[in-house]
Structure formats: C-alpha cells, structure tokens
Amino acid sequence: MTTSPAQESRRHPVTTAMTAQRAENLQVRVADAITAFAGSMLFVYLHAVAFTLWMLFAERSPWPTLTLVVSLEAIFLSTFVLIGQNRQSAFQQAKADHDFVESELELKTNTELTRQIHRLTTELHRRVIPEGDHGTTPSLPG
C-alpha cells in the first residue's frame, strides 16, 4: 500500500515509523500476509469447500485426521493472532508515548504564553494606570 506525500503528512508519526519498520522485516511481512488472508472471507470459503471435499471424497472416515488438521491449523492461526495483538499493543504504546510528549510540550508552551500575557497585561496596566491612581478611571487619549 503506497501513500502520497499529502496522505503521509496527515498520518501520525508513530504510524509512519511502524509502517516503515514493518516493511523492512520479512518475517513481519509474512505474518501480516498470513493474518490478512486468515482474517478474510476467502479463507472461510476455501476452508468450507476444502473440508467438504475432504469429508465427502478424500477419506472413508475423515474425522480423526480432519480433527488433527483443524487443531494444528487453529494453533498456528492463534499464534498469528497473538503476534498481531502484540504488534498492535506495541503500536498503541508508542503512539501514547508520542502523544504524551507532544501534550507535555503543548502544556509547557501554553504555560509560557500565559505567563507572557500576564507580564504584558501587568506592564500595560502599570503604564495606563499610574501607581497612586488606582481609584480613578484613566482618561483616554485623544
């Protein structure tokens, strides 16, 4: 899946980094491909057809062998599900860490802006209203 530069700029930085990291690792790409296929309706249809054909034509008593094959397949597929969940968990943690840092930076910036506004307001107040003139209304120039 390719993205345009405009789409890439709208993506979260963690998503971009994780996508690049996953693209570089052959094992991860293979696991992603298997997981994507195993999570599709094509997988379900192929299995329904294959198991039906097996039960009808391949063996006289298909249940013991079919049970073994389905159990082994379930073991491997559950492993791929766990791999996917671990990667999703790592992604969520990395995104949360990034968002926390950004949030803290934003808070620091907002705090500094608030302090500067307070200093400017205090200075403006000091210049417009002289020290001994707190009880009177200043006259406007002009």
From TrEMBL:
Pfam families named in the record: DUF1003 (PF06210)
Which spans are transmembrane here?
34-57, 63-83
Protein keywords: Membrane, Transmembrane, Transmembrane helix
Q: What InterPro entries does this protein's entry cite?
A: DUF1003
Write the protein's name.
Answer: DUF1003 domain-containing protein
